[in-house]
Design a protein that fits this description.
heterodimer; A: 115 residues; mainly beta; seven-stranded mixed sheet; four-stranded antiparallel sheet; B: mainly beta; 0% helix; globular
């Protein structure tokens, strides 16, 4: 089955620790995205990548880092510099960014709680 | 500046009735695409329907239809014959021609009651 896999589904970390969220896709998609969702805030873009070894900051990139060494993988690191890391994180991919009508496909999400 | 605006409070809908979810957007790009997603309590995002800025007709997909009013920059989602499984958050999103990213609104909460 093709799709996007995010792991783990739930993650708990102590304040001050870095944590990496995994996102893997086997859809052969070029573009990948990371969104953060807080209650009442909708989805906000953290980082996105249109091609391997290249990525761009989204609207709320501070305190986060990413890498895109392989087409299938786009891990997100939440660093200790992120002031309010507790949130629901969604990874997405899309097949071809040149086409306007290509929807993004989403993973199941990772709920991060920092205590 | 907010690109996508969804301002309705949570809505209760009677089963089998229709419901309209409002979405207004802001862009100066003549080429853009509008998307609606459904997010049930499990958290996954499910794509529902797409409308392109140059499409002449309103998009339809099963029980979902999009009331696209370009001059008003409005793209309202209509769900006909509501079912209990339609209870979820609904998000409107836009992709502008020059960008690959999707910008999302804050969502509309819908609860379908029997």
């Amino acid at each position: 089955d093709g799709g996007i896999t995010q792991s783990p589904k739930y993650l708990f970390r102590k304040e001050g620790q870095n944590v990496t969220l995994s996102c893997e896709q086997n859809l052969n998609h070029d573009a990948m995205y990371w969104y953060r969702q807080d209650p009442g805030q909708g989805l906000r873009l953290i980082y996105y990548s249109q091609i391997v070894n290249d990525f761009q900051k989204g609207d709320i990139a501070e305190g986060y880092s990413v890498s895109r060494e392989k087409k299938e993988s786009f891990p997100l690191t939440v660093t200790s510099a992120q002031k309010n890391p507790t949130a629901f994180y969604l990874c997405a991919s899309s097949p071809e960014t040149a086409f306007m009508n290509t929807e993004a496909f989403f993973g199941q999400g990772t709920r991060l709680t920092v205590v | 500046a907010q690109k996508i605006t969804q301002t309705q409070p949570g809505m209760f809908v009677q089963e089998k009735e229709a419901v309209t979810l409002d979405c207004t957007y802001d862009t100066s790009d003549p080429s853009y695409g509008l998307f609606w997603y459904k997010q049930p309590s499990s958290g996954e995002m499910i794509f529902l329907i797409y409308q392109g800025s140059y499409d002449q007709q309103n998009a339809t997909e099963g029980r979902y239809s999009l009331n696209f009013q370009k001059a008003r920059k409005s793209a309202n989602l209509v769900i006909s014959a509501s079912q209990l499984g339609d209870s979820a958050m609904y998000f409107c999103a836009m992709r502008e021609g020059s960008l690959s990213r999707l910008a999302f609104g804050k969502g509309n909460q819908v609860v379908v009651i029997p």
